Amino acid sequence: MFDPAQLRPDDGADPGNQILARIPSAEREAIVELAEEVVFPGRHGLFDQGDQIDRVYFPLTGMVSLVIVLRNGATVEAMTAGREGFIGVPLLHRVTTAGFKGICQVEGKFLELPADAFLSTIVRLPELTRRLLRYAQFSSEVLGQSAACNGMHSLQQRCARWLLVTSDAICATNFTLTQEFLAQMLAVRRSGVTVTMAALAKRELVSYKYRQVSILDVAGLRNVACECYGTIKSKAADLLA
């Protein structure tokens, strides 16, 4: 049985899901009763593009990448979802087909619940519904920001932004990551990511060993990142607080 106390914002052991942590306890318990705690490893596929959405996920410590799959099999990350949000936004608009492929980007814990139970329950949970809709708006704005970022900013700026967003989403500065996966998410060649990570490591902003990334200098990495990181942080403060 999942312990709702894990969702407290001030719980140092587990940052929990911030949507669920900020709603009244009665509403939170109504959702938790329907949910099961699951653990997904990195690179685990939650669903494919075009699948029926039959599950909703609230990240507790893990993070999911929502990616677009092109006809040639190439993947491009559209956005990520960590403890600040949830996976299942289309259901709020009564859309039941996944527009993206969902991949567990950073291994960790999630609350999983059936889509039909989720939809039938939130109609009587006004504060949760309000926060879910605000997260949906946040997601829409982040998608637009990401499109601008991919078209206008350098690989090093985008990589720094990506690392910072991931760190914020899981409330940690250390996480597992392969250069191959990062290259896929940024839609660049692996060699480009190798050079970029080496440059960031040379400046002692990050370390990268045995698939483990550590952000050593958050402030310094923010100085490298493009304006999009600050913009996304501002949107989160406005829409999700």
In terms of quaternary structure, the protein is single chain
Q: Major sheet: size, sense and barrel closure?
A: 4 strands, antiparallel
Span from first to last CA? 28 Å
Total number of β-strand segments?
10
Q: What strand order characterises the main sheet?
A: 2-6-4-5
Could you say which overall geometry the principal axes of the C-alpha atoms support? Answer: globular
Output the helix-strand order. Answer: HHEEEEEEEHHHEHHEEHH
Strand content: 15-25%
Structural class: alpha+beta
**CA radius of gyration:** 17 Å
Percent of residues in helical segments? 40-55%
Q: Describe it for me?
A:
The chain has a four-stranded antiparallel beta sheet. A three-stranded antiparallel beta sheet has the order 1-7-3. A three-stranded antiparallel beta sheet has the order 8-10-9. It starts with 17 loop residues before the first helix and ends with a helix. It has nine helices and ten strands. The chain is globular, with a radius of gyration of 17 Å. Mean pLDDT is 90; it is low at 1-14. With 241 residues, it is α+β, with helices and mostly antiparallel strands.
